[in-house]
Design goal:
There is one protein chain. The protein is mostly helical. The two termini are 29 Å apart. The mean pLDDT is 79.
């Protein structure tokens, strides 16, 4: 997990987020914790996101 993790919206909130994205007061109520039981986390290599590593195909 990351302390600058993006917002995860409930599916039913997505349309409202997109319609009102410039009105801070109306979308702030959509920023609530996503249910932890609905999130899956996977450990990945520290090479992920490392700009010094390149993927060659």
């Amino acid at each position: 997990m990351h302390n600058r993790m993006s917002v995860i919206l409930q599916p039913e909130s997505e349309e409202e987020w997109l319609e009102k994205n410039s009105d801070k007061d109306s979308i702030i109520v959509l920023l609530k914790p996503y249910p932890s039981e609905a999130i899956r986390a996977y450990r990945v290599s520290s090479d992920i996101g490392n700009v010094r590593k390149t993927i060659r195909s």
